[in-house]
Amino acid sequence: MNLILQGLSQDRAAATHIANLASGRLIDLSATTWRCEGIAMSDALKAEIDSACHIAKLDYAFMTPERQLSDFKLLAMDMDSTLITIECIDEIADMQGLKPQVAAITEAAMRGELEFNESLIRRVALLKGLDASALERVYDERLQLSMGAEKMLTAIKAAGIKTLLVSGGFTFFTARIKKRLGLDYTHANELEIVDGKLTGKVIGEIVNADVKQRTVERICTELGILPAAAIVMGDGANDLKMMRVAGLSVAFRAKPVVRAQASVALNFVGLDGILPLLT
Q1: Which of 44, 52, 115, 162 has the smallest number of CB atoms closer than 10 Å to its CB?
Q2: Active-site pick, 78, 90, 235, 272
Q3: Would you write out the chain's pLDDT as a tens digit for each of its 279 residues?
Q4: Is the pTM of this model over 0.85?
Q5: In the β-sheet with 33-37, what is the strand arrangement from edge to edge?
Q6: If you write DSSP's letter for every residue of 143-192 in order, what string do you get?
Q7: Which fold has domain 1-66?
């Protein structure tokens, strides 16, 4: 196996220490990215590397040397707290003075402590009566792309890989992000708006974990590929089902339950941290 190490600082000494723990040969990929070759991976070694990397603020991934970006044909991404830095519903709720209450429900749902449909219905109900212009304010004033998003997408598109944004959030935001970033597919929840006000309801089927998985599988079928040719990125418990069917699952700034089950976890570097893994 190869062990890929990457961070935000040029701390080659930390990378050298970890390479020595793994008994691997260290190769510089950049000032902040290294590859250790010839690693005999084991659960004990992984636990040791995990602890050392946490202390050094380095992300790590054990990868088979032959894996390339060209092996993949679809990149599926969660939106809130993955492609973007915020949870849109929490920021919408802030316009109602209800952010703490809604954010607490969001956090519990993302940790897997609340059933997603129930949590979304409860959160959206709290938005009843809010002027729909609040959505535009959140998009204009608070929505930011996660670090490395544009660099990642430039490389993904150059490799001919299709892009899917599949979200338990809202179509108001996914539609705008699709246009802004030139994404191929999106799927999200639609907020009901009547007379310029949020009704506190969602129109149609809720995009929960099962729907996210089915959406990834449906797009793969449309593209004539297997889910094994998909990279799936997410941060919350409702992303786990679509991550499990992917050829490579990436936990980005994720909850512990997600990090534990993903192929790769990016805790420090940006979304473009997937690129050194597949070169």
Answers
A1: 44
A2: 78
A3: 999 999 999 999 999 999 999 998 999 999 999 999 999 989 999 999 999 999 999 999 999 998 999 999 999 999 999 999 999 999 999 988 999 999 999 889 888 888 899 999 999 999 999 999 999 999 999 999 999 999 999 999 999 999 999 999 999 999 999 999 999 999 999 999 999 999 999 999 999 999 999 999 999 999 999 999 999 999 999 999 999 999 999 999 999 999 999 999 999 999 999 999 997
A4: yes
A5: 25-30, 33-37, 2-7, 58-63
A6: --BPTTHHHHHHHHHHTT-EEEEEEEEEHHHHHHHHHHHT-SEEEEEEEE
A7: Alpha-Beta Plaits (3.30.70)
Backbone torsions φ then ψ of 63, nearest 5 degrees: -130, 145
What dihedral do alpha carbons 218, 223, 225, 226 form, nearest 10°? Answer: -10
Task: Indicate if 78 belongs to the active site.
Answer: yes
Torsion angle defined by CA atoms of residues 113, 117, 123 and 127, in that order, rounded to the nearest 10 degrees: 170
Please say if 59 is a catalytic residue. no
Q: Which of 59, 80, 90, 239 is catalytic?
A: 80
State phi, psi for 37 to the nearest 5 degrees: -105, 155
